[in-house]
Structures are given as C-alpha cells and as structure tokens.
Amino acid sequence: MLLIDAHLDLSMNALEWNRDLRAPIQEINDREKHLLDKPDRGNATVSLDELRKGNVGIVVATQIARYVAPDSTLPGWNSPEQAWAQTQGQLAYYKALERTGDLRPIRNRSELDDHLTQWEDDGHTIGYILSLEGADSIISLEYLEIAYEFGLRALGPAHYGPGRYAQGTNAKGGMGARGRDLLHKMTDLQIILDATHLCDDSFWEAMEYHQGPVWASHQNCRALVDHNRQFSDEQLKEIISRGAVIGMPMDAWMMVPGWVRGESTPLNKNVTLNTLIDHLVHVCDLAGNTNHVGLGTDLDGGFGREQCPADIETIADLQKLPELLLKRGFSDNDIVKFCHQNWLDFLEKTWS
Ligand SMILES: [Zn+2]
Q: pTM of the predicted model, to two decimals?
C-alpha cells in the first residue's frame, strides 16, 4: 500500500544530528549509540531505505529554524537572516539528494502525477513536498516569494514558543498585522497553511483571516491528550469544514496522557499503532466521514524509537497499519484514503 507521510524533519536529522539518511538504519544507530551531544537525538527510525521498504512514496519534508532574542533560553538563531541561512542549508541537502536520485521534488499537479507513475515503476526516488515549520526565517514577505520559487508549498507560521509571525505551542497571543500579511501572501501564492503548532489565539485569528488551503500536518486530539499542542474538537471541526486533512503523528507524549520523557516507555504506557488509530477514529467521528485523516508521523522529529509506538521499529513498520485498520472495522476504501488518497485528493484540489 502506498503511504504518504506529511511530516518528516529529514534535513534537520541530517544537518543537526549529522545523520546520513542514505546509510542503512542499523549503521546510523550503531554510530549514534553512545552520542550524548543533542538532548533530542533518539534511536533512528527513518532512513531513505526504510522509507522505500515501507512504500512511503511521498513525504512532506521540512525546513526548520527559529529566531530567538539574544537573551532567550530557547534554542534558535539571533537574527532572521541567520535562520533563513539555516533553512537554505537544509534545502541544499534536499537538492543534493535530488542529484543522487533519492528525492524528487513535487511542486505542482503535473509533477505529482509524474511522480506517482515513476514510483509505481521503480519505487526508488521518493517524492517530497517542501514545507517550512515556523516562519521566523522568512525575513520579509519578499523572502516568501523567493522560498516559493525554491519550491516551498506549505508553511506553519509558528513552532514551539513565540514567533515573529504567530505564537506557537505553549505560547499565547494572536498573529497581528505581520502575521495577517503573511497569510495574505500565502493565499496569493497558494502556499498551504499548516495549522499545526499554532496556539489557540493565533489559530483562531488565522481562521478569521486566511482564505487559502489549510491542513494540519502532524496533529493529535486534545479530547484524548489534554495539552495545548493538541487541537480541541472545535479547532478540528473548523479545519475539517475548510477541507483540511489532518496528519496523525507518532510522538508518544501526544498520543497518551501522562507521558514523562525519559521515564515512560512505549511498552509501559501501552503506546502502539492502535493508539494512533484512536486519534484517527476521533477525527472521523467529528467529521462524520473518513475524508480528513492521513499520516503525518513526525518520526525522528526530536525523539526516536524510545518515544514512538512500540510496534514501530522503523518507519517501514507503518505497513502494519492497513491490517490494524481492517481489524478496527474500516473498509478497504477507507484504508486507501488514510494511507494516501486523502492527501492526494487535497493536493489535486489545491493545485488544480
Ligand atoms: Zn512539529
């Protein structure tokens, strides 16, 4: 079954953790076994080979770099120019992987169609849609045009904490004039708004002003795990009413309540792919149909195997999902929709 994963921090893994994604997963984990250099480094589940084994033929691949004031304790760059340069380094990695034949950019409908044909033929070159997590690095709106020229097709205005254009997870406050200008420009360029990580105030302001396409690339349900990182039922219903697809992430702390980083384990908290299906079912119940859910695993996005479903050793294990969904009573057609068709329908509509 073809899978689409709408959120992977591939460049971040490569450049911040010095992780060669072209290497076998065992080699990656052997090399990093004793490394304690980065607090968010975990046991790798994602490599290019594992994506191929899992028939993950399309990914939404991120660029990510935050601006922080020099006196802030959050990690980040002290000027938007530095953050921009960081994201351009990340883009250079994707471009290098294009030249090795590992990645293929998908920026419009015809590239999407061509890629699907190619993937069916050889299953080797993975299609990627370029996304930006947190807009701090967009120095000015002119840079959004440049980013679009370079292939950017989706953007989440905020990440964790305060941002230049919107406030993110654990922060408070709206988007303000600068954020609203960003939304206008995104609509002009048909850049997809990724609502994930917007704090409640910024989320509702975005919903008031944004006219263009919206999705939530990696987003769970507050009804199941009560934390502001997850969306409330009202928020989920709002984006569903706008035709959004919501990607189900696999960071264990967002899947079950009471997860303690470094203490809880997938086994002792009983976090499995079935837990992900609980969130998926909740979104389908809110929607009243099965049209608005996909995968946005975020695997290796600041955590590793020790903090993801127990039945995931690598991302290839996502192929266990179809059978689990069947056991939970979903039809073959629903399963196809979750695995890839809902994302494809969204993209085809957005790029028509
Ligand atoms: Zn994220």
A: 0.97
Give residue 79 CA to ligand 1 midpoint distance, Å: 21
Distance (Å) from CA 197 to ligand 1 centroid? 7
| Whole-angstrom Cα Rg for the chain | 19
239 C-alpha to center of ligand 1: Å? 18
- Segment 210-247, tens digit of pLDDT: 999 999 999 999 999 999 999 999 999 999 999 999 99
Spacing, Cα 244 to ligand 1 middle (Å): 17
CB 78, CB 84: distance < 8 Å: no
Ligand 1 centroid to Cα of residue 305, in Å, is 17
Strands 293-295 and 192-194: unpaired
Measure 65 CA to ligand 1 centroid, in angstroms. Answer: 12
The Å distance, Cα 254 to ligand 1 centre, comes to 11
